[in-house]
Design goal:
The complex is a heterodimer. By secondary structure, chain A is of the alpha/beta class. Chain A has helices at about 5-10, 30-45, 65-75, 95-105, 155-160, 165-180, 210, 285-295, 300-305, and strands at about 50, 80-85, 110, 120-125, 135-140, 190-195, 195-200, 220-225, 230, 240, 265-270, 280. In chain B, strand 2 (about 230-240) and strand 3 form a beta hairpin. Classes of the chains: A alpha/beta, B alpha+beta.
Chain lengths: ~325, ~375
C-alpha cells in the first residue's frame, strides 16, 4: 500500500474550494455533517433534550472541544466569520488551536470581535457583549448530563429526564443551603430549559446563566466524548434552579476590572507578585480591549503596564 | 491582555518545532524508518492497529514514529485518520477455523486434533536481558527447524469440539450474521444501554489493553466469581471476504493476521438450563495474546446478566467497563485538565472565601485549611 492516499486526502482535491484541499470542507465528510445537522434539528425542536449522535474522532483530543468542533463543522459555511474563545479569551492556546484548525480546513474569515462573528465557539464563557439574532454560539460540553454527579448511570438518568423526575437536583441544592446557608455551585449551575428539561449550561460560571435566558442567538451544545448534542433555540426561557426564599444570585466583585474599570463583567484574579499582590481583570479579553480602546482605564492599569502585563498598543487594531 | 495567555499562536508554532526536534533526537544517530518499525517493532504495530481499529501496518508504524513511540498517542493518530475514511463494504464474518495457524495452544486438552503449535512466543524465554542485541546482529537464515510435516488444516476450534458433546453453550448468531439485520457499529452509533454482545465485543476489541488486563485480573483474583480456562488461543492469517452487491457471492479481498482466544468458563446452571460451560471471546488484530485473553475474560464477565447470574463486581458492570475502556476518550478527558480552568477556579475561590468569612467569626478559633477544604471540595471537581 502506498502513502499516496494520504497525500491525496480523503476529501479529494478541489482547487476552487477554500481551505486545505486535502480535507473536505470543515474536515468531516458530507454524510457525517448531514447526520449531525439532523441531530441539531431534533435538538432545536426539543429544547434542552440531549440527542445521541454518532460522534466521530476528531484530530483534537476528547475533552478538548471535539463536540463543539463537530457542531461547528456541521453548521459552518464559506461566508461565516468565526470566533473562538476559551475562558473568555481569544488567544488561550486551545482557542488558538481550534481557530487555526478551522482556518485550515474551511479558509473562513476569523475574528476576535464578538459583534462581527457569525459563529462563536466557546469553552466556559458567554461573551459580555450581548449576542444578536443572526449569531450562533457553540458550546464545548465536557459532561452533557446535569444529573451525572447524582446518578452515574446513563440508563437511569435518561429515565429521570423522561419522567421529569428532578427531585434529586432540588434536594442537592437544598442540602447546600442547609449546610452553607446558600447554594454552593459556582459553575455548571443547572438550568431548566423551556420549562421541561434540566440542562447543563456547561461549566460556564453562574454569572453567565442569565445571558442564556431568551437569548436572541441560537445556542448549540456539542459533547464529543459523550456523543450528545443539545440546543436552546432563540428566545427560549432558561431558568436557573432556585427556591422562592433562596433566589438565584450571580457572583459580584467589590472591585472593578483593573485594566478597563468595568464593573459589569466576570473577573479573573491575576497574581502580580509573590507577596500576595493581585488584581482583577476581565475574563472576556475582547470586551476589556474594546473598553480600553474607548478610553476607559482601570485603577491598576499603570501598575499592569509597569510589570509588562499589558502594552499600550494593544487593542488598537481591534 | 496579560502575559500568561498572550502569544498563544507563536507559542504553539514553536512548540511544534520543539516536539519535532525532540522526536528526531540526536541527529548523529540514523533516523528510524517506517519499514524498520513495521518489521522490528511488530507487536507495537499490532497494538496500535487493534486499538486504533484500522488494519494498516504502514500507517500504524508511521503513527508510532510520529508519536515518538507513545502508543496511546499513536492509537489516537490512527483513529483520527480512520474517521476520515469512506466505508466501502461490510466484510463477511472471518472464519478463524480455517486460519493458517502460526500458533495454537489449548490449556484444556493435552492433545487435540491438529496438535499444539507453539510458534513464536516469549512464554518460555527466560526474561534475561540479551546483551548480544546491543550489537547489530548478523542475520542467520533458517534457524528454526522446519516441521517434519506441514500442519494439518483446517484445525477445529476447541469450543467446537466441546460443543459436539453439548457440554458448552452453543454460539448463538448475533445480529448481522443471519436475518437479524446489521450488527451494531460503535464507530457510527453512540453507546447504547443495555448493550448487546456485538456492541460489547466491539468496544472491548478497541479497548485499552492495560485497562482490560486489570479488569480481567480482578475477575480472576476475586472480584468476579469465575474461573476461566484458556480453551484455545490461536494466531495466524485469516481471509477477509466481501459480497459485492453486483456479484452476489463472496470474493476474497485479502488476508489479515489476528489472535483469537476462546475462554471456557464454569456455569452452575439455572432453573432453565443444566450446568454447562460458557464462552468468553477475544479477538484482536495482529499478535497480542495478552489482550485477546483479557478481552475474553471480560467478555464473559459482562455476560453475567444474560446468563442469569447476579452482578456484583466492576468487571460485570457494562456501563462501567464499556464507558471507560477507550484510551483515546480516557486520555483526552484526563489530560484536558491541563487546559485553563481559571474561570471555574475563580468561582470556587470566591466561594471558599465567602464560606470561610461566614464560618469563622472574628476571634473564633481558626479552622485549618484542611478542614475547610474537606467541606468545600466534597465531590465537585471542575470540568
Amino acid at each position: 500500500m502506498s502513502l499516496l492516499k494520504d497525500a491525496e486526502g480523503p476529501g479529494g482535491g478541489d482547487a476552487a474550494r477554500p481551505g486545505d484541499p486535502h480535507y473536505n470542507f470543515a474536515y468531516l465528510d458530507e454524510q457525517t455533517k448531514r447526520m449531525i445537522r439532523r441531530c441539531l434539528l431534533k435538538a432545536i425542536a426539543v429544547p434542552g433534550y440531549q440527542v445521541p449522535f454518532g460522534g466521530r474522532e476528531m484530530p483534537l483530543a476528547y475533552g478538548w472541544g471535539t463536540g463543539g468542533m463537530q457542531v461547528t463543522a456541521a453548521v459552518i459555511g464559506p461566508e461565516d466569520v468565526f470566533k473562538v474563545i476559551d475562558q473568555g479569551a481569544d488567544d488561550t492556546t486551545n482557542a488558538v488551536s481550534i481557530r487555526r484548525f478551522f482556518q485550515r480546513v474551511t479558509g473562513v474569515e476569523t475574528t476576535e470581535k464578538t459583534g462581527d462573528a457569525t459563529i462563536i465557539q466557546t469553552r466556559h464563557r458567554i461573551p459580555e457583549t450581548p449576542l444578536k439574532a443572526d449569531q450562533i454560539i457553540v458550546y464545548q460540553v465536557p459532561q452533557p448530563e446535569p444529573l451525572r454527579k447524582l446518578e452515574p448511570r446513563e440508563g437511569e438518568t435518561r429515565k429521570l429526564h423522561a419522567y421529569s423526575e428532578y427531585g434529586l437536583m432540588q434536594v442537592r441544592l437544598y442540602e447546600d443551603i442547609s449546610q452553607f446557608g446558600h447554594i454552593a455551585t459556582t459553575y455548571s449551575y443547572p438550568v431548566m430549559v423551556n420549562g421541561r428539561y434540566i440542562t447543563s449550561p456547561t461549566p460556564i460560571p453562574k454569572f453567565d446563566n442569565p445571558k442564556m435566558d431568551r437569548m436572541p442567538a441560537l445556542q448549540l451544545f456539542g459533547a464529543g466524548r459523550e456523543r450528545r448534542i443539545y440546543a436552546i433555540p432563540p428566545y427560549t426561557s432558561v431558568k436557573s434552579l432556585d427556591f422562592d426564599d433562596h433566589p438565584f444570585e450571580v457572583q459580584r466583585w467589590d472591585k472593578p476590572c483593573g485594566l478597563c474599570g468595568a464593573t459589569d463583567s466576570y473577573l479573573d484574579e491575576v497574581i502580580t507578585d509573590d507577596k500576595g499582590g493581585k488584581m482583577f481583570v476581565c475574563s472576556d479579553t475582547h470586551y476589556c480591549e474594546m473598553r480600553r480602546a474607548a478610553g476607559h482605564a482601570g485603577p491598576a492599569y499603570e501598575t499592569a503596564k509597569a510589570i509588562d502585563l499589558v502594552h499600550d498598543d494593544e487593542g488598537a487594531d481591534r | 491582555m496579560y502575559v500568561a495567555v498572550k502569544g498563544g499562536e507563536r507559542a504553539i508554532l514553536n512548540s511544534h518545532k520543539a516536539v519535532a526536534k525532540k522526536r528526531r533526537g540526536d541527529a548523529s544517530v540514523p533516523e528510524l524508518s517506517v519499514p524498520q518499525i513495521m518489521e522490528q517493532m511488530g507487536l507495537a504495530v499490532d497494538r496500535v492497529m487493534t486499538e486504533g481499529s484500522l488494519y494498516d501496518r504502514e500507517l500504524a508504524a508511521l503513527a508510532i514514529k510520529q508519536a515518538q513511540g507513545d502508543l496511546v498517542e499513536a492509537i489516537f493518530l490512527l483513529r483520527a485518520y480512520r474517521t476520515t475514511l469512506t466505508r466501502l463494504a461490510h466484510a463477511e464474518p472471518v472464519d478463524t477455523g480455517s486460519m493458517r495457524i502460526e500458533r495454537r495452544v489449548s490449556a484444556t486438552f493435552k492433545d487435540l486434533p491438529g496438535g499444539q503449535v507453539l510458534g513464536p512466543t516469549y512464554d518460555y524465554t527466560h526474561r534475561l536481558l540479551d546483551f548480544s542485541l546491543l550489537e547489530e546482529a548478523v542475520i542467520e537464515e533458517g534457524e528454526t527447524e522446519p516441521e517434519a510435516e506441514p500442519l494439518d488444516g483446517p484445525m477445529p476450534r476447541v469450543p467446537d469440539i466441546l460443543g459436539d458433546e453439548g457440554l458448552i453453550e452453543p454460539e448463538v448468531d448475533g445480529p448481522g450474521s443471519g436475518s437479524g439485520g446489521d450488527p451494531y457499529d460503535i464507530t457510527r452509533e453512540p453507546m447504547r444501554f443495555p448493550a448487546e454482545r456485538d456492541q460489547r465485543l466491539q468496544v472491548l476489541a478497541r479497548g485499552d489493553e492495560g485497562f482490560l488486563l486489570g479488569l480481567a485480573y480482578s475477575v480472576q483474583r476475586g472480584f468476579g466469581q469465575n474461573h476461566p480456562f484458556a480453551g484455545e488461543i490461536r494466531h495466524g492469517p485469516v481471509m477477509v471476504e466481501i459480497v459485492p452487491e453486483e456479484l452476489g457471492f463472496p470474493i476474497e479481498i485479502g488476508e489479515i493476521e489476528v489472535t483469537e482466544c476462546q475462554m471456557v468458563n464454569q456455569f452452575k446452571g439455572s432453573k432453565q438450563a443444566p450446568p454447562s460451560f460458557t464462552r468468553g471471546y477475544g479477538l484482536v488484530l495482529g499478535h497480542s495474546e495478552r489482550k485477546a485473553m483479557a478481552m475474553a475474560v471480560v467478555d464473559r464477565a459482562l455476560r453475567t446478566e444474560e446468563l442469569g447470574e447476579t452482578p456484583g463486581y466492576p468487571a460485570q458492570d457494562a456501563e462501567f467497563v464499556l464507558y471507560h475502556s477507550d484510551n483515546v476518550e480516557a486520555a483526552g478527558f484526563v489530560t484536558h485538565l491541563k487546559l485553563p480552568h481559571y474561570v471555574d477556579f475563580q468561582g470556587e475561590l470566591e466561594l471558599v472565601r465567602k464560606v470561610r468569612d461566614e464560618a469563622v467569626p472574628v476571634g473564633a478559633p481558626e479552622v485549618t485549611p484542611d478542614e475547610a477544604c474537606e467541606v468545600l471540595f466534597d465531590g465537585e471537581p471542575a470540568e
